[in-house]
Amino acid sequence: MVELNGKVALVTGGSRGIGAAISRRLTQGGADVAFTYVRDESQGKAVVGAIEATGRRSLARQLDAANASAVQQIVDEVFSHFGRLDILVNNAGMFPSAPLEDITVEEVDRTLAVHVRAVFVASQAAARHMRDGGRIISIGCCFAERVPYAGVSLYAMSKAALLGLTKGLARDLGRAGSPSRSCIQGRRIRT
Question: 34-49 pLDDT, tens per residue?
């Protein structure tokens, strides 16, 4: 892993599962790590404890990624608290699964708010604070391109939208005069 001493990372959805593993791994690389969680404060405290036990700094905040203003505020708070922001990992997510006829418009709106709008808002806010060399990483899914079974149309749609957004961000934020790069679903894609 690249040396991350002195770097600050923000991981959305960083208190359990993939997000907790990312938070801990960034810490092992030397970064101070802030993260968000939606429900379980005890899991959040456990991850903070694990990070601080390594001598790194941590900050955990409960927030619903569907709340755009809260997403904006956490990015700004992390920058204010640590004095910098070098890495944003957009990991917060949900897994809606239901037959097509049972999906409500409210579920569509919430899923897109968490998987797409929150990523856009957080990335936009982070880009304002990041210096050269900053990184924005969004956790996608193979369902964006291949749907292996029925009942996941909404999830697949949201991850496909995330894929398009990530490619667009690579163009918007890449260095002028050089090909932008984004790592999508574990492989490098030149855009």
Answer: 999 999 999 999 999 9
Q: Which of 93, 180, 191 is nearest to 144 (CA)?
A: 93
Look at the block and give the residue holding tokens 């700094």: 57
Mean pLDDT for 116-138 is 96
CA terminus-to-terminus distance, the chain: 24
Active site residue 37: no
Q: How far apart are CA 181 and CA 162, in angstroms?
A: 15
* Exposure letters 3-14 (e unless 16+ CB within 10 A, then b): ebeebbbbbbbb
Span 130-164, pLDDT tens digits: 998 999 999 999 999 999 999 999 999 999 999 99
CA distance 91 to 13: 5
| Catalytic residue chosen out of the listed positions 155, 157, 163, 169 | 155
Mean pLDDT score of the chain: 92
- Measured at the CA of 132, the angle between CA 159 and CA 36, to 5 degrees, comes to 45
